[in-house]
Design a protein that fits this description.
Blueprint: H1 22-52, H2 54-60, E1 65-66, E2 69-70, H3 77-103, H4 112-144, H5 157-180, H6 187-216, H7 234-258, H8 264-275
């Protein structure tokens, strides 16, 4: 349908809002082709938002004492930052050579789409890990008869590290992918798509949580995520997030397999050849 915009209407005066150049039409096509991949990255941001909210709430209901010092639950995000930083630094020197050795393929690192898929898979594992930690936290809290579980907050470390590795895969690859698949005139829009997925993930996380609480808090029930986590089932919400992320991963694989990466320089050369008389 976009190609019809290239055909001038000779039945009346020309309309600048309907007649577009080949470049403009192709740029719109580039953006439309990216939207399915962009939609899949939104749910990965939901996991990141939960780390900044529900993980901290979970940690606040755990034993934060290290001797006489109390470790702030929000400080656990340091493990996410450290794991993300280390993974990005050592990716080319350690991860890629190991990947080539295991797969026994020619020395070619995973593509951007493959890295996003790996990151989404790790996000699923992170949510499952968080769910199992929550089950044990709640169990020990109920056995002790206290609101604060005697279980150490550092049992959260694996889930924070996994989310950090997932971020390193998804966000870096996503930025590189959108940047490489948009023309020079739309590079900022490609970066905007990458950043907007985080914003959309925040809204989506709020919507999912609101819907879940509306459904699970009927008939006077406390719901899955009440103020006192011992009265709820935060682990169910984490399992639900893992299930949604798994479905999202399946849809992503479907879209990624059908996406054909564009070599922009080659495409631009072909267009120049087309306009030559």
């Amino acid at each position: 349908p976009l190609n019809t915009e290239l055909i001038p209407d000779k039945t009346g005066p020309s309309n600048p809002w309907r007649i577009c150049t080949i470049t403009q039409v192709e740029e719109v096509k580039c953006i439309l082709r990216l939207l399915p991949i962009w939609m899949c990255t939104i749910l990965s941001s939901v996991v990141f938002i939960q780390m900044l909210s529900l993980f901290i709430e979970q940690g606040a209901a755990m034993n934060t004492a290290i001797g006489a010092f109390h470790f702030p639950p929000a400080s656990m995000t340091a493990f996410d930052i450290i794991s993300t930083s280390f993974f990005i630094i050592f990716y080319d020197k350690l991860i890629v050579p190991l990947y080539v050795k295991i797969t026994k393929r020619k020395p070619k690192p995973p593509s951007e789409l493959q890295r996003i898929g790996i990151g989404l898979s790790i996000a699923v594992v992170a949510m499952i890990m968080a769910a199992f930690v929550e089950k044990q936290r709640r169990r020990y809290a109920i056995l002790s008869g206290q609101d604060i579980s005697p279980m150490s907050i550092f049992w959260q470390t694996p889930q924070y590290v996994l989310v950090g590795i997932s971020e390193a895969f998804v966000y870096v690859a996503q930025w590189e992918f959108f940047s490489s698949q948009t023309p020079d005139g739309l590079k900022s829009l490609g970066l905007g798509l990458s950043m907007s997925s985080s914003a959309m993930g925040s809204y989506l996380c709020s919507i999912i949580l609101s819907v879940v609480m509306h459904i699970t808090s009927k008939n006077g029930k406390p719901g899955w995520v009440p103020p006192n986590l011992n009265d709820g089932n935060l682990d169910y919400f984490f399992f639900l997030s893992a299930a949604l992320t798994t479905l999202n991963l399946g849809f992503y694989i479907f879209c990624a397999k059908r996406y054909k990466c564009i070599e922009l320089e080659k495409r631009a050369t072909d267009k120049e050849m087309e306009v030559l008389p």
